[in-house]
Specification:
Length: about 325
């Protein structure tokens, strides 16, 4: 079986310092939910990727644990440091802390379980990924925490029964599995491109748009796309305590993973019970705005986290008048 790889992405810029709320985080309206959702506190997101720069000042306090499944570092399971950059970038979009400098993630108080399944070159075998998914599904934190979201910005051309089974089992444990659609798009909505695990019906498959809400030219289109998120020129954390602007569906995926890290505590507080994976999915889809592309391109539309709040405000004004 062929290898699983990082979905190819573009490096737009690497910066030593920065201080801004990234445009993508603004676009998905994350801030509007921060207060009610306690910035995602209590949500654990497993990032299945190239690892994470464990000492990055904006990430280190949110890393709850991790494991290395690759041959890197002499196969040391306890060294899940990122030697590629991709995993660190994904981690920052999900949960870079709010500390007055650098960048801020979608869910700045969420906790990260770092599972390194891709090597320095950005490739790994299917077994490592299956093992990591199984590990995430069974993992328990020091205070009984459980993974609620798995974020996978990786893909391969081949379907794998073991991979699909591991994903189904994770979903059975009430874990939302978020996957990148892939970057083999040809700019035409009617021609389908599939990458796995993104193309599985069971996962939440994310396509990419730019900051003007235009479909990215590289984003895969197919009949399993669930929604889109910002994926062009995305600013986030990087190696050596730096920052980078990258483009790809890999960058759109963590926006949705972070969005779920806000939605889960928010709706579970509202409903006063724990919600199933399918209920959480419907809560996510309620917070999407159609952009006018075909369903094969944008699925249900752009993740707009404050949408239900805006509707409530609108209707309460209407009923009062």
């Amino acid at each position: 079986m062929s290898e699983m790889k990082l979905i190819p992405y573009r490096t737009e810029a690497i910066l030593d310092t920065t201080n801004e709320l990234p445009k993508g985080v603004q676009m998905v309206e994350a801030e509007r939910l921060w207060e009610e959702a306690d910035q995602g506190k209590g949500s654990v997101v497993a990032i299945i990727d190239t690892g994470c720069h464990m000492d990055h000042p904006e990430l280190k306090n949110n890393i709850i644990g991790g494991r290395n499944f690759t041959d890197d570092y002499g196969s040391d399971p306890d060294n899940y440091n990122d030697n590629n950059g991709h995993g660190t970038h994904v981690a920052g979009t999900i949960a870079a802390i709010e500390n007055g400098k650098g960048v801020i993630g979608v869910a700045p108080q969420a906790q990260l379980l770092i599972l390194k399944v891709l090597s320095e070159e950005g490739s790994g075998n299917y077994e490592w990924i299956v093992e990591a998914i199984q590990y995430a599904a069974q993992w328990q934190g020091p205070d009984g925490e459980k993974v609620r979201i798995i974020s996978m910005s990786l893909g391969g051309p081949e379907d794998s029964e073991d991979l699909r089974t591991a994903i189904k089992n994770a979903i059975g444990e009430n874990i939302s599995v978020v996957c990148a659609a892939g970057n083999e798009g040809d700019g035409r909505e009617e021609t389908p491109e599939y990458a796995y695990p993104g193309a599985y019906n069971e996962v939440i498959q994310v396509g990419a748009v730019d900051h003007q809400r235009r479909l990215a030219d590289f984003t895969n289109t197919n009949n399993q796309i669930d929604l889109v998120a910002p994926g062009v020129d995305i600013l986030s954390t990087y190696l050596e305590g730096k920052y980078a602007r990258l483009s790809g569906t890999s960058m759109a995926t963590p926006h949705v993973s972070g969005g779920l890290a806000l939605i889960i505590p928010l709706v579970e507080k509202q409903f006063e019970r724990s919600m199933t994976e399918s209920e959480i999915f419907s809560q996510l889809i309620k917070r999407t705005t159609p952009l006018g592309y075909s369903k094969r391109a944008e699925g249900n539309g752009l993740m707009t986290l404050a949408l239900t709040k805006k509707l409530e405000e609108l209707f309460s004004t209407y009923t009062k008048t």
